[in-house]
Amino acid sequence: MTAQLLDGKAAAAAIRLELKERVSRLKEQGIVPGLGTVLVGEDPGSAKYVAMKHADCLEVGINSIREDLPADATQEQVEAAVKRLNDDPACTGYIVQLPLPKGLDSDRVLELIDPAKDADGLHPTNLGRLVLNVNAPMTSPIPCTPHGIVDLLLRNDIDLKGKEVCVVGRGVTVGRPLGLLLTRRELNATVTLCHTGTRDVAEHVRRADVVVAAAGVANMITADMVKPGAIVLDVGVSRGVPDPVTGKSKLAGDVALDVREVAGWVAPNPGGVGPMTRAMLLANVVEAAERQ
Ligand SMILES: Nc1nc2c(c(=O)[nH]1)N[C@@H](CN(C=O)c1ccc(C(=O)N[C@@H](CCC(=O)O)C(=O)O)cc1)CN2
What we know:
- Homodimer.
- By secondary structure, the protein is an alpha/beta fold.
- The longest helix is centred in the N-terminal third of the chain and has 21 residues, at 8-28.
- Helix 1 runs parallel beside helix 9 and helix 6 crosses helix 9 (273-291).
- It contains nine helices and eleven strands.
- The structure holds ligand LMY7XDAE.
- The ligand Nc1nc2c(c(=O)[nH]1)N[C@@H](CN(C=O)c1ccc(C(=O)N[C@@H](CCC(=O)O)C(=O)O)cc1)CN2 is lined by residues 48-49, 52, 95-98, 120, 144-145, 173, 251, 269-271, 274-275, 277-278.
């Protein structure tokens, strides 16, 4: 068996096209959405993601505002950048690219974001709304990667009701909010959240109908761990992993290539969930502007 492709690149392109029309309608009413980003340091992955987010904005007609700070920026400098974006009327939504360099307190920074401009849905108020299940579409943002994962599955007519979902990784951008989203009554999945303290990750993965690998450990999910026909989404990224054939260093996901021989569906990395994360960010920005 070779798994079918969950093509995030194509789905994200379709979403951007829809958003472009919504942005045009907003502009007819005199509202110009603007996405702000706070990028601290020179991490190549973070720099690339931020650059891609702004390229997406250009494509759909959203204005771009950048706050780029050096790697040795102080907590006060980062907080000042957040306050500038809170006060800037041209910025209708913004994100602080994570992770921040060591020594900076990202929780404190996230708390300073104006919840109405929180394009990532990571402000405690918006995460709280997710917990309370009061952020139905159009009332407050849902974190981009979890939203992108659910959207990608639904677009491919994959029903989650009653499914056993194993999420590997408990980070604030993916694992934790994804568990909350999937257990909503309208999705009704049953979620197991594995983490570094889980005794036997393979045992949980083997039982799952859907596996979301978001641990950031290269090739940790192998074919022998996956139930035949399962749906596997690769979210984790490791950079600088040597290619087994050429020896050249490259980007690797959490899911080994041989999983494609066992799984029913695979969202690859790159080309799966990453583009959906960016598309959901744009959707959050457009929705925030529409709410205004
Ligand atoms: N403030 C945030 N920081 C981070 C988030 C987030 O949602 N908000 N998530 C991740 C990274 N991320 C978003 O910023 C992200 C990951 C992947 C992609 C993407 O488009 N990936 C491409 C490949 C890109 C490449 O070649 O390197 C793909 O998968 O096809 C975009 C955004 C951590 N930080």
